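FYI - complex with S-adenosylmethionine, inputs then prediction.
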Amino acid sequence: MKIPGRARRGAAEQPVEARTGRSARPGKRTRRFLGLMVVVGAVAAFTRPGRSISRIIARRLDARVEGFAEPESATYAHVIAPALRRFYGGVANDAAAEIQARGRQRRPTIVDVGCGTGELVVAISRKLRDARIVGIDTSADMLLWAGRHETTDGRVRFVAADVARLPFPDESVDLIVSTLSLHHWPDPAAAFAEVARVLSPGGVALVYDLRLLALDSKEMAKAAEGAGLDPSDIVREPVRGGLLSRLFVRFRLEGAFGDGDFYD
Ligand SMILES: C[S@@+](CC[C@H](N)C(=O)[O-])C[C@H]1O[C@@H](n2cnc3c(N)ncnc32)[C@H](O)[C@@H]1O
């Protein structure tokens, strides 16, 4: 599938701003927004009373980010993704542990939903050398950045797609990961229905989001029911790791037959 606006192969060595003719430097408004998010996140993470008010403020601020076009994608590539490198490493470790805990009768297929600039896909591809990994995203500008990491053998690919219409056959994906994207999904019920549809028997979805912005328990139960699942099918889990991980929560959904080997 073609990614709209993606640069031709061979131009990969050029910086994205040279290919697009756009400036990659974050604007003043974007920097102010990011600064506010950091302050709100710190208050929420480290003080209990700060949490609900911080949640309201964070959701309001986040609602102002639309579409991840320019300059948001450039800011993401230059500022946010590098700051999250350690977090992506932890998620890649989790992904590798999930795959290794299962019997391997075939090459695993992994999908990163809302892959943004593609750093998590790269981190996973370094841990799981034989996996096929596809990053999907709705933003052509984010995919322009992610496309730099594609491999010519098709092992790492990036595709324009919406989580509510995943371009994969039923029960064909062994692991779905997603970071910081869930709170942008307009219809979480449709999204989880798709995630459940494409997960292979024995497969698993790990959806990480900022605690401040993620769906709360009631909202997630409603999404699960809307997806035709039982609310207990989507399990809310803490994220292990250092201080940064305290800002995140993880949702786990097992494939139709729960833990087990991948079937061919
Ligand atoms: C905050 S960024 C996170 C990017 C990356 N996962 C990370 O952790 O750095 C959210 C991403 O989700 C994508 N996104 C939002 N809604 C989406 C949807 N309905 N389907 C797929 N991707 C979506 C956005 O385009 C954006 O790239």
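Residues 84 and 244 are 9 Å apart (CA to CA). The chain has two domains: 16-83, 85-254.
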